[in-house]
Structures are given as C-alpha cells and as structure tokens.
Amino acid sequence: MGGLVFRDLLSFNLAYLVKIGWRLLHNPSTLLGQILKAKYFPDRLFMEAKLGRRCKRFY
C-alpha cells in the first residue's frame, strides 16, 4: 500500500521525545531550546523540570 508504516506509535513518539531531550541537553541555546525553556521550564534546567498536570507517563 505504500506510505510510512509506524507499527508501534507509542515507541516512535517516545524515541522522538528522547531525541528532542538530547538536543536540549547538548544545544540549549538553539531556537527550539529557547522556546521550550521559556514556555515549559523558565526557572529551571531541563533535567529539573517537572511533569505537567495532564502529562501521561509512558513507562
């Protein structure tokens, strides 16, 4: 049938979030890093950020 086939969407999403986290740790001064820091954890470091109220744990 063609197209992209994601058999396990939960694993794909988790892997993408880990990739973004890795980039934030190693390149916090990028535009994406600055935007995410300003919105989600303005007064903390990335590794000290807490889960939001509506966040679901994947593990």
Mean pLDDT: 82
Q: Kindly report how far apart the N and C termini lie.
A: 32 Å
Could you spell the SSE succession in H and E letters? HH
Count the DSSP helices: 2
Largest sheet: none
Basic shape? globular
Radius of gyration: 14 Å
* Uncertain residue segments: none
Per DSSP E runs of 2 or more residues, the count of β-strands stands at 0
Helix-strand category: mainly alpha
| Percentage of residues in DSSP E strands | under 5%
Characterization of this structure:
By secondary structure, this protein is mainly alpha-helical. The chain has a domain at 14-43. It has two helices and no strands. The protein is globular, with a radius of gyration of 14 Å. The mean pLDDT is 82.
Give the structure's gist in a few sentences.
It contains 2 helices and no strands. The protein is mainly alpha-helical and 59 residues long.
